[in-house]
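> call design_seq(struct)
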């Protein structure tokens, strides 16, 4: 493998492999940012991987009052799934249980997609016949009475079939502190890229996986080639000096979002240098068998 480097950090001449997904976006508002974020954090919990959670979700960013439909503070949330039916199921369930229930919130479409998903169209029935239909500026809303006032929810939101899931970077370092520093620098940088999320806890995953397992019931299992404790008893991808590895996984509303997120994340992590951060950065792929979206690291160095 040809050796590349950035700020003294070795960059593997390889690529991240990603796959197509369905995605949607919603805007949650509240009287203050605390409660808008609380609803968003709650509804995006247990949404790290489609392998076990049904969807992948995260906060795309906070919105100023001038950027929300009702002039209140808000956040934009992105949800990704492998099918339209699963995305619809996850959207209604999470908004119904985590946003409708959260004090002071309202919920609106966050994307104008090629198709639509039901947002408040079925949640309105919680109003038990007291809900009110409202049409304004060509959009359809429902006003559902709740104990702290009313829950305003737009009837539908958009769906995009151009979304991409599975962009990734792996940070190989001498120890846990250095591997985390590199990953955190990437997470902070990617937070500025709109249309991209990092679905794992705090944006970082320590349990990267490979496809399959020696156990038939498991569709994925630990990525043993990158586990430092297995060096010497498995086919390892780690040099002797590597003591810890962290990974970030990126989902985006379109190919360009994932590419830009990986670019800024790579540069931010490498800016720490090999002593404070990662000594080597690589990416995970399956030889082109998993998805059609490929992100060569050398193309991200510019």
């Amino acid at each position: 493998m040809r050796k590349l480097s950035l700020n003294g950090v070795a960059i593997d001449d390889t690529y991240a492999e990603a796959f197509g997904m369905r995605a949607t976006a919603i805007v949650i508002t509240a009287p203050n940012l605390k409660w808008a974020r609380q609803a968003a954090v709650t509804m995006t919990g247990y949404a790290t991987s489609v392998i076990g959670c049904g969807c992948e979700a995260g906060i795309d960013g906070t919105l100023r009052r001038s950027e929300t439909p009702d002039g209140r503070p808000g956040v934009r949330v992105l949800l990704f799934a492998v099918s339209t039916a699963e995305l619809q199921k996850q959207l209604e369930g999470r908004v119904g249980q985590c946003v409708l229930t959260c004090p002071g919130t309202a919920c609106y479409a966050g994307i104008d997609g090629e198709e639509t998903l039901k947002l408040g169209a079925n949640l309105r029935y919680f109003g038990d016949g007291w809900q009110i239909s409202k049409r304004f500026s060509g959009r359809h809303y429902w006003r559902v009475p709740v104990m702290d006032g009313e829950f305003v929810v737009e009837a539908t939101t958009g769906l995009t079939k151009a979304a991409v899931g599975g962009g990734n970077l792996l940070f190989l370092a001498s120890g846990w502190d250095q591997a985390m520093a590199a990953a955190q620098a990437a997470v902070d940088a990617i937070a500025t890229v709109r249309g991209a999320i990092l679905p794992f806890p705090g944006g970082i995953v320590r349990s990267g996986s490979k496809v399959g397992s020696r156990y038939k019931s498991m569709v994925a299992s630990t990525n043993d080639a990158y586990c430092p404790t297995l060096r010497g008893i498995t086919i390892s991808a780690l040099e002797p000096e590597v003591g810890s590895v962290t990974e970030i996984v990126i989902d985006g509303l379109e190919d360009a979002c994932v590419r830009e997120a990986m670019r800024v994340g790579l540069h931010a992590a490498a800016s720490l240098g090999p002593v404070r951060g990662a000594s080597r950065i690589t990416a995970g792929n399956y030889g082109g068998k998993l998805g059609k979206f490929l992100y060569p690291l050398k193309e991200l160095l510019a």
